Amino acid sequence: MKRISVITVLVLLFFLQAINSHGQSKPLSERMAATVMDIWSDSLWTGRPFRWTYDQGVLLEGFANIWERTGDGRYFNYIKKSMDHFVQPNGTIRTYEQSSNNIDNIKNGRALLLLYKVTGQEKYLNAAKSLRQQLSTHPRTNEGGFWHKKVYPYQMWLDGLYMGQPFYAEYSALANDYDAFNDIARQFILMERNSLDPKTGLLYHGYDESREQQWADKTTGRSPHFWGRAMGWYGMGLVDALEYFPKNHPKRDSLLNILNRFAVSVEKVQDVKSGVWFDILNMPDGKGNYLESSASSMFVYALAKGVRLGYLPERFRSVAQKGYAGIQKEFIEVVNADKVNLTKTVSVSGLGGKPYRDGSYEYYLREKVITNDPKGVGAFISAANEMELAALPKDGKGKTVTLDQYFNNEYKKDVSAITTRYHYTWDDKANSGFSLLGSIFENTGAVLNTLDSAPTTANLAKSDIYIIVDPDNEKETAKPNFASEKDADELYNWVNSGGVLVLFTNDYTNAELKKFNIISERFGIHFNDDMINAVKNNEYETGAFVIPKKHPIFKTSKKVYIKEISTLSLSSPAKPAFTSGKNVVMATAKVGKGTVFAVGDPWFYNEYVDGRKLPAQYENFKAATDLVNWLVQQVPGN
Question: Is 464 considered catalytic here?
């Protein structure tokens, strides 16, 4: 009997371990998103009053982050469906009232900008313009800070910096409105100046310039307490706005300094035992105070993203890791292998209003604490996604990936009627862009760069990987920069010294190949004047390739899609990397210390990796990730 019992116990333990392992195989951000799509299948307003509110924007921010990391179109489609409930064909927004001058209403504008950048549909831009117009007329304090709402005159709340400034910054970058960044910086500077406690470095929830509110200190105008989520809003607002700040802007350093002071103060009040944060940050022993999930998620997000983008020192990564571990222990409730719940989120906390909220400690502790509040859930999804990005291998750290803008040199008018580059650029989120490919490189720790002059060993000296895509012909650019013998010499010497060269051309009808072969033939690769995989309409299987098992480059992708490809003819030192029948589709070459990869198509532009167009069976995003990982491994020293 004892032997049977031991065997039974061991078998049970094995199955429990297997179940747990399976449950952890899917990233937490995606398990939380699955819960969202189950509870609010048709948007946040399933079973709730229908209105334009920031709650939805916080959720959709998390979905946008997952979509960029995974290329899974379900997340983008959820964003689009959610916004399409509100945005009318002419760009008007249902239930939105500009005259209310509520800074919270600006938050969802980032979802609108994403939809415009990806789809190009004018209705999203028009909707975003109406939110930007609100900022132009929004009432301000005498110092120039945005009121939180018209009904809260002369008041600035920490919450409002997250609601308004990231959109303001992203819109200004899109519109090339450089001067607006002075105003954006002013908002963060004023908020810190007027709400900072010099003893703790923490920021009070709100500030009343008029000193008329009951909750406002008659000398300083500050509210009485340090509310966790308010500090969280401010931190998220900082890292999200900084992402769009021009690197040479004179106020950028001021914001970086504020963020670093913020991080230090947040670290000091992190609960040592649990790793997370209390609702009232500086009163862990206060009666009724509790560990709160939304603030904890926001701090993890702000710190982790700040480290990833180089705004914060590396040491804050461990603060974020400790916080994330604490979140999983304290707040995550497992539903099943695919879904989780987020518990212990305070539903709301504010100042003033009706009934009046006096900002007292007792007031904050009276507010309802719930499970799966959208503000907490959205913040957690973003935090989990950041930690999942941090956990990816960083083989590209210290490496620079440079994208050619000399042989491919196309322009169009942007939304400000300014002539700007497009077609296979890092920052283009439309079908024709390389924004997702760029993100995959950045996820390895690599830094992105561009080169708009002819390549030389000198101007490529600090580049580890150099990508040339779709060399121009006369129908694409008035004065194409054709490849020359000098270009071939320079690139051969650069590769020979250890450079990794990537050649993404196109079929012969859409790219200049004759002169470009001057470069590629130095490595034994010739792009043929032909085309295979000509796909009609949605007959995707015509462009399908099955990747052989144990492929040395494409280690995780099984089936991919490439249409209208120029095939390759090879000579030494080139070798086929992928063939279809008698056709060589991809090739590699080793020259000295360096490596060349070639395929006769741009392939990994957004249209075919972002999950919106291709059926899920075609794993182009996985293939792009596989290729990126392989490329960074070819850099000498890896």
Answer: no
Q: What is the Cα–Cα distance from 457 to 491, expressed in whole angstroms?
A: 7
**Cα torsion through 618, 619, 621, 627, rounded to 10:** -120
| 8 Å CB contact between 205 and 160 | no
d(CA 339, CA 330): 17
Cα 419 to Cα 408: distance, rounded to the nearest angstrom = 16
In tens, the pLDDT along 168-213 reads 999 999 999 999 999 999 999 999 999 999 999 999 999 999 999 9
End-to-end CA distance of the chain: 56
- Give the pLDDT of residue 4: 43
Catalytic residue among 159, 373, 428, 601: 159
Residue 45: the pLDDT is 67
| Under 8 Å between Cβ of 113 and 174 | yes
**24 pLDDT above the threshold of 70:** no
State whether residue 620 is helix, strand or coil.
Answer: helix
**Burial class for 536, CB neighbours closer than 10 Å (0-12, 13-18, 19+):** exposed
* Alpha carbon separation from 261 to 223, 312, 313, 317 (Å, rounded): 20, 10, 12, 15
pLDDT tens-digit map of 414-445: 877 877 888 999 999 999 999 999 999 999 99
- Pairwise CA distance, residues 355 & 329, whole Å: 35
Q: 0.90 cut: is pTM over it?
A: yes
Parallel, antiparallel, or unpaired for β 583-591 and 594-599?
antiparallel
Cα separation, 252 vs 256, whole angstroms? 6
Task: Label the pairing between strands 410-413 and 340-342.
Answer: unpaired
Q: Are 62 and 382 in contact (CB under 8 A)?
A: yes
